[in-house]
């Protein structure tokens, strides 16, 4: 079916040059060396931050985005066997990157001595002094911010959060301290592997839940004989050949992806004097209504009838239950729904909340997320926006999300758009890194790739993600993160300014929904059409990229 041009008269937008969000494909060839990371950070400093305190340009907490790249210059033990040869220690969180091949015959194996956590290199921009291993005391503002985010995240989730490094500020991924996920066809292998290693667990793993029609199983591990973490248990099973690598994984925490930190948006929300959204709300004369589901923190119902945010009329969703004292991550889903509706006015939007009553602390366990995604499909969406993601153990694809795609999503005329994360790294950030998802990185308003944005396999395309303005609940917000910790921000205009790949993703989701509306395309064809309208450009910190033509360049 013929597709209309971007300049179709049916879509009317203000003729303002700065109001054109850039969308660009990225090259996956950039190096992750510390030198290149520092060079990119320096070259991509943005003039759009002139009105923002330099202190607020930091990395975000774990819940909404992956942690910064940690390219080590020192020698780090890479296998479980190497760590097992080290003297015994008492810490219980170890970065794992082991692999092992399966064996046809698995003898009964004695449990080896406890592995010692390895030191983890600092993130880009972090201080090498002032770090106390295994403690919350850390050196730089960037590391303090990550730690602040992690502390808040653990508190919001009753402490059910473990991480893979000794120092909290250095974590790569987060996971439930007692759960693992297994595909149903690998359950017998997992149960047999555990039983063959003497003294590893004090009891047999308990099969807690069968999800996605039984295709995905969730187990709870009983207390470990020597206090091993879930990650250490899997390291051991794989290193001894008792379990094929990748067939069992921790139940990872998936978190929102605003700008610059390990867990969260690039920055905490900022007040704005603007009364109109940016990108501006458009007027669409023709086209079919398209269903879009935003899977996020929830919905702020007053925004749908507020005269200050008329573009959100008709949006529905799970109530966040915001009061005058705003919680961390409040308004995230509402802001994203606003961006989608501004780009694609003829959309029916439902905001699916991460957690019951919106009290999820900005994140959700991988096994719970697929339940939310399954609920989202009941609205028959053509586009799902997920401005959240995570790094994983050994950077392997998360099992639950992979099973969700295999058993649910690929059977639907629906495309999932996901944030690429805010750690300026090429390491996979899931689900954006899946080939069946559209991963979106962030651009500044000058068309350069944002310094915080992930790239490579997680970013199929880039869109505007710096200093967007859209709907936000009125109320008082107390900053929880260094360097703005305890600062008080008062929101009274129904709007906020926010940055991160979380907000770049709905720009692309909106463009895909608009293509479906105008031309009746399938969801996948619409996504391909949006990506195809591109020309080559060059970013000084990234290299060659592809940018969509007018009016989105």
From TrEMBL:
Tagged with keyword Nucleotide-binding: no
Top-level taxon of origin: Bacteria
Bias type Polar residues, positions: 1-10, 40-54
Region Disordered, residue ranges: 1-54, 85-134
Keyword Ribonucleoprotein: no
Compositionally biased region (Low complexity): 85-104
InterPro entries referenced in this protein's UniProt entry, alphabetically: Peptidase_S8/S53_dom (IPR000209), Peptidase_S8/S53_dom_sf (IPR036852), Peptidase_S8_Ser-AS (IPR023828), Peptidase_S8_subtilisin-like (IPR050131), Peptidase_S8_subtilisin-rel (IPR015500)
MF terms in GO: serine-type endopeptidase activity
Location of the active site: 296, 332, 502
Residue stretches making up the Peptidase S8/S53 domain: 287-535
Family recorded in the similarity comment: Belongs to the peptidase S8 family.
Record protein name field: Peptidase S8/S53 domain-containing protein
Taxonomic source organism: Nocardioides seonyuensis
């Amino acid at each position: 079916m013929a597709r209309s041009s971007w300049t179709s008269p049916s879509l009317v937008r203000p003729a303002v040059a700065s109001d054109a969000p850039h969308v660009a494909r990225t090259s996956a060839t950039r190096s992750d060396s510390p030198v290149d990371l520092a060079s990119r950070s320096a070259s991509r400093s943005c003039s759009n931050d002139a009105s923002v305190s330099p202190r607020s340009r930091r990395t975000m907490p774990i819940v909404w985005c992956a942690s910064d790249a940690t390219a080590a210059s020192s020698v780090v033990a890479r296998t479980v066997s190497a760590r097992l040869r080290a003297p015994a220690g008492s810490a219980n969180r170890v970065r794992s990157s082991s692999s092992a091949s399966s064996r046809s015959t698995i003898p009964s194996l004695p449990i080896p001595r406890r592995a010692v956590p390895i030191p983890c290199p600092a993130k880009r921009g972090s201080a090498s002094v002032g770090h106390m291993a295994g403690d919350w005391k850390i050196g730089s503002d960037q590391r303090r911010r990550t730690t602040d985010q992690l502390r808040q995240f653990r508190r919001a989730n009753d402490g059910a959060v473990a991480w893979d490094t000794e120092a909290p500020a250095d974590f790569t991924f987060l996971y439930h301290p007692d759960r693992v996920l297994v595909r149903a066809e690998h359950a017998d292998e997992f149960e047999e592997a555990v039983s063959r290693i003497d003294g590893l667990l004090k009891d047999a793993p308990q099969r807690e839940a069968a999800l996605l029609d039984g295709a995905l199983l969730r187990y709870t591990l009983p207390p470990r004989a020597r206090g091993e973490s879930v990650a250490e248990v899997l390291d051991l099973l794989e290193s001894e050949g008792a379990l094929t690598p990748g067939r069992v994984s921790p139940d990872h925490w998936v978190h929102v992806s605003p700008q610059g930190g390990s867990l969260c948006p690039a920055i905490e929300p900022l007040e704005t004097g603007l009364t109109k959204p940016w990108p501006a709300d458009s007027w669409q004369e023709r086209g079919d209504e398209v269903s879009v589901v935003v899977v996020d923190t929830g919905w702020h119902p007053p925004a749908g009838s507020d005269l200050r945010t008329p573009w959100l009329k008709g949006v529905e969703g799970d109530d966040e239950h915001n009061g005058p004292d705003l919680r961390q991550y409040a308004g995230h889903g509402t802001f994203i729904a606003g961006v989608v509706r501004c780009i694609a006015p003829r959309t029916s939007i439902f905001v699916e909340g991460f957690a019951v009553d919106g009290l999820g602390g900005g994140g959700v366990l991988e096994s719970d997320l697929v339940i939310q995604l399954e609920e989202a499909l009941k609205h028959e969406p053509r586009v799902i926006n997920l401005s959240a993601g995570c790094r994983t153990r050994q950077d392997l694809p998360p099992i639950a999300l992979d099973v969700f795609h295999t058993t649910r999503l690929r059977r639907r005329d629906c495309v999932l758009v996901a944030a690429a994360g805010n750690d300026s790294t090429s390491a996979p950030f899931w689900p954006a890194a899946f080939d069946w998802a559209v991963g979106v990185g962030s651009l500044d308003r000058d068309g350069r790739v944002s310094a915080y944005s992930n790239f490579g396999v997680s970013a199929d395309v880039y869109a505007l993600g710096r200093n967007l303005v859209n709907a936000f609940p009125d109320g008082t917000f107390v900053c929880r993160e260094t360097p703005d910790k305890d600062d008080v921000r008062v929101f009274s205009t129904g709007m906020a300014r926010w940055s991160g790949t979380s907000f770049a993703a709905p720009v692309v989701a909106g463009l895909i929904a608009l293509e479906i509306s105008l031309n009746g395309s399938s969801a996948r064809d619409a996504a391909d059409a949006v990506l195809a309208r591109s020309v080559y450009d060059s970013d000084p910190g990234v290299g060659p990229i592809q940018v969509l033509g007018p009016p989105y360049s």
